[in-house]
Amino acid sequence: MPALVPELSVSDWRRSCAFYTGMLGFALRYARPEEGFCWLERDGAALMLDQLGVGRDLALPPAHPFGRGVNLQIEIPDAETLAARLTAAGHALHLPLEDRWYRRDDHEVGNRQFVVADPDGYLLRFFSDLGRRVRKTEGLPQGEP
Description:
- 14% of the residues lie in helices and 43% in strands.
- The protein is mostly beta strands.
- The protein folds into 2 domains: 1-55, 2,3-Dihydroxybiphenyl 1,2-Dioxygenase, domain 1 (Roll); 71-133, Signal recognition particle alu RNA binding heterodimer, srp9/1 (2-Layer Sandwich).
- Strand 7 and strand 8 (123-134) form a beta hairpin.
């Protein structure tokens, strides 16, 4: 079991479960329909969906879109294929597919990534690892870390 598993409060767990399993490639590991709950997994990532108003509500009363200020980063083998599948199915991408390099100490790490919102507005950033490269330092002021 992963050390951190987000539990997302949702307005309709069946609709959300269908989106995560049908569109995003998550597997349903188990569900408790009487509680409006399910556990999902994909490529080592896990999350729980819990319907508001059914069972026990642990979240503050949400306002749509849910999850304001949070995006969940999920590593997958092929972000490009998933982005294309979502686009072909008519799901708008919140952030289109891009290659992005991030500074980490004396090098950069790359992600091929995109962001999509789930039915309740949670932002999901799917990415594939592009590897690592030497940090580009031209154009930085002297002494810039």
